[in-house]
Amino acid sequence: MSIKSDGPPASTPRLYVDQPLDLASEPVVDGAAAHYLANVMRLKIGDPVLLFDNISGEWLTTAKMIGKKSISFVVERQMREIESVPDLWICFAPIKKVRMDWVIEKACELGASHLQPVVTERTIIDKIKPDRLTAQIIEACEQCGRTSLPSLGAPVKLPALLRDWPEERRLLFADENGGVPMPQIQAPPPAALLVGPEGGFTQKERELLNAHSAVKAISLGPRILRAETAAVSGMALWMGQYGDWDVAQTS
Ligand code: SAH
């Protein structure tokens, strides 16, 4: 493996570990992650693995001991500090599983800082499995190079969300009935995007939203987008305008 002067090869495995990392730590990976490294990636002693802890950033480590159930590592050096992602929340009415998994994964890749499930009147799915969504978040962040995981909120009903809304945060309400095109409004961070369920928002919810001082109804074009399309389009539009897409690649 040709090691680039400034780091390990692009194929180096990259994992999140729920343990603080520093030069003195000897992180241990077990369970599915250890199985993946040992049996899928055929990790050998001394091979490099990038670990990040959602606290200090990303570290280059090498495999020290590869056991049946766990692998321990020597921390060699810090590769990156934890990055600050643009402060955009995605507030989404839970939708059917496969499509919601897709929204979660895209929100991580696009750089959202917080994922907030919002139960609306037409929300079909009002229970989410936090552990499953967290595993999705971790996998997406391992793949896309983030060193910071977005936080995941507990589901909240729309009226309660608005009642407790942080007033400094602009809430962009993706309204399928029309609103202002995003490029025409000022919505710098801290900001949030709200997307409804498959059945859309009720008129009562629309009135509740439009009466809130932090809310701005935005249009995502003349066509009716699926909720997941609206979530990704809205996040991409905001990131392109206010996010960190003007910086170089992470690797
Ligand atoms: N069933 C509804 C559409 C719901 S689409 C209907 O036929 O009217 C799901 C969500 O995606 C909507 O609640 C809205 O938040 C968002 N959305 C879809 N198309 C949009 C558009 N053109 N502009 C803004 N938001 C849109």
Which fold name fills CATH's third level, the topology of the largest domain? Alpha/beta knot
Q: Can you tell me the CATH architecture of the largest domain?
A: 3-Layer(aba) Sandwich
CATH superfamily caption of the largest domain: SPOUT methyltransferase, trefoil knot domain
Radius of gyration over alpha carbons?
A: 20 Å
Secondary structure elements and their pairing?
Layout: E1 14-16, E2 28-30, H1 31-40, E3 48-52, E4 57-66, E5 70-81, E6 88-92, H2 97-110, E7 114-119, H3 130-144, E8 151-152, E9 156-157, H4 158-163, E10 170-174, E11 180-181, E12 191-195, H5 203-210, E13 215-219, H6 227-242
Parallel strand pairs: 1-3, 6-7, 6-12, 7-8, 7-9, 10-12, 10-13, 11-13
Antiparallel strand pairs: 2-5, 3-4, 4-5
Helix pairs in contact: 2-3, 2-6
The structure holds S-adenosyl-L-homocysteine.
Question: Outline of this structure?
Answer:
This protein has six helices and 13 strands. With 251 residues, it is of the alpha/beta class. It has two domains: 14-81, Beta Barrel (Ribosomal Protein L25, Chain P); 88-242, 3-Layer(aba) Sandwich (Alpha/beta knot).
List keywords for this structure.
binds S-adenosyl-L-homocysteine; 13 strands; 251 residues; Ribosomal Protein L25, Chain P; Alpha/beta knot; alpha/beta; 6 helices
Explain this structure to me?
This protein is α/β, with parallel strands linked by helices and 251 residues long. The protein has 2 domains: 14-81, Ribosomal Protein L25, Chain P (Beta Barrel); 88-242, Alpha/beta knot (3-Layer(aba) Sandwich), CATH 3.40.1280. Helices cover 27% and strands 26% of the residues. It has helices spanning 31-40, 97-110, 130-144, 158-163, 203-210, 227-242, and strands at residues 14-16, 28-30, 48-52, 57-66, 70-81, 88-92, 114-119, 151-152, 156-157, 170-174, 180-181, 191-195, 215-219. The strands form 2 sheets. Strands 6, 7, 8, 9, 10, 11, 12 and 13 form an 8-stranded parallel sheet that branches. The chain has a 5-stranded mixed sheet with strand order 1-3-4-5-2. Helix 2 packs across helix 3 and helix 2 (97-110) packs parallel to helix 6 (227-242). The longest helix is centred in the C-terminal third of the chain and has 16 residues, at 227-242. The protein starts with 13 loop residues before the first strand and ends in a 9-residue tail after the last helix. The relative contact order is 0.14. S-adenosyl-L-homocysteine binds next to helix 6.
